[in-house]
Amino acid sequence: MTYTFGVMPGDDIGPEVVPEALRVARAALDKAGVDATWEDLPVGWAAYQELGTTMPEDTIPRLREMDGCVLGPIGHRAYPRDDPKAIRPVPVMRKQMDLYMSVRPAKSYPSLTSLHQDVDLAIVRENSEGFPPDRNMVMGSGEFRPTEDVTLSVRVITRRASERIARAAFEVARARPAKHVTAVHKDTVFMLSCGMFAEECRKVAAEHPDIAFDEVMVDSFAAHLVMKPQQFDTVCITNTFGDIMVDLASGLVGGMGMAPAISASDAFVMAQASHGSAPDIAGRGIANPYAEIMSMAMMFEHLGRTRSDAGMSKAARLVEGAVESVIADGAPLTPDLGGTASTSEMGAAIAASV
């Protein structure tokens, strides 16, 4: 089959790192014998300047016809706040494409400085409900102010969302060597909401006796993650708790520049690095392309696993191996990794190593 992917460079450093991810992706797909087409889709600041909106109306319909997309970082803080067409693209895509699953790995490399070595974990975060007010109501907002001195934030936890993120976590764990899922919650305090999430995780765990399962309270998890992250493999967690813990995990292995990610539904997957758009270094050609490149590898791995496509799985391994080879060699690396290479030099070296 031929895969179809959307390409959205994003803002600031996005047009610098996304082409490098594409360069590596094409090399890996060619070597793995996988056919793919790539279609540019306008989104973000460039789309606003050209079309008057950061999220053109035909973008979502086009994405629904595709297998996945790569999205560069979005610098939404610079968008005009008084223009309703200057909207944040990611929440729109998340909701319209039902991207209920976010996967963020944290991996250390022996040749790179980090707070811990031998770290290799994946945090599988529920991405469609919870505390975020933009995704827990059909209409209106989940955050409201009934009086001048009182603000309420509503948390939504459903059995359906809890079950499907638990199933996603166990499928991720099955493809990893340790095959161990840790459910993170706080059912001692949020007895009904976290309690429901934990119940669904336990039910799914009972269906997978070959995969180890345990539970940790979120506050204890934070401490253990800092002190001994090596004990964790695949973490299943609710939205806001996960939003905090994924950044903490990234800090343990080198920071947000080392934070690839995917967001996925049952039919679509989006590769997007977790770091920001870094306007302070945009245009200088020194942005680290690692996270965007590895996000692409994660997209290939996801498609290979969920569609039983050995070619896609091979492409994912090729990207991962090329990245590891360049990092192990210690050059060419961008300045944030201790090197002197440009974004394109590092990307070219990884592509050549595929």
Give short descriptive properties of this protein.
354 residues, alpha/beta, Isopropylmalate Dehydrogenase, 2 domains, ten-stranded mixed β-sheet, 11 helices, globular
Q: What's the overall geometry?
A: globular
The total beta strand count reads: 12
Fourth-tier CATH superfamily name of the largest domain: Isopropylmalate Dehydrogenase
Name the poorly predicted regions: none
What's the CATH class label of the largest domain?
Answer: Alpha Beta
As a percent range, the share of helical residues equals 25-40%
Strand content: 15-25%
At the fold tier of CATH, the topology name of the largest domain is: Isopropylmalate Dehydrogenase
**Alpha carbon gap, first and last residue:** 22 Å
| Architecture (CATH level 2) name of the largest domain | 3-Layer(aba) Sandwich
Element order: H for helix, E for strand:
EHEHHEHEEEEHEHEHEHEEHHH
Mean pLDDT, all residues:
96
- Report the C-alpha radius of gyration, rounded: 20 Å
Concise account of the structure shown:
The protein has 354 residues and is an alpha/beta fold. It is 40% helix and 18% strand. It has two domains: 1-99 and 268-354, Isopropylmalate Dehydrogenase (3-Layer(aba) Sandwich); 115-252, Isopropylmalate Dehydrogenase (3-Layer(aba) Sandwich), CATH 3.40.718.10.
